[in-house]
Specification:
- By secondary structure, the protein is an all-alpha fold.
- The protein has one domain.
- Helices cover 85% and strands 0% of the residues.
- The chain contains three helices and no strands.
Length: 75
């Protein structure tokens, strides 16, 4: 059974944030001027895209799906 859209989006946002954090850790260990450029050009956009995708997935969830889930847990 395929995962609902919101779960896929949250999974992708988590992956993007994790890759961004790992890249930030690597650039903090690496002492070179290019490390700062990698930090700015790779890891910061990955983190920002992951955060924005997470927020977008929360905002665009259809209200009917939320209502169905809340009603199914009440019974």
């Amino acid at each position: 059974m395929p995962a609902p859209t919101i779960e896929r989006r949250i999974r992708w946002s988590g992956i993007l944030i994790a890759v961004g954090l790992i890249t930030q850790l690597i650039t903090l260990i690496w002492v070179h001027p290019l490390a700062f450029m990698a930090f700015l050009m790779i890891s910061c956009p990955l983190m920002a895209i992951g955060i924005l995708l997470y927020l977008y997935s929360l905002v665009t969830t259809p209200s009917s799906a939320v209502d169905r889930r809340s009603n199914s847990t009440d019974a």
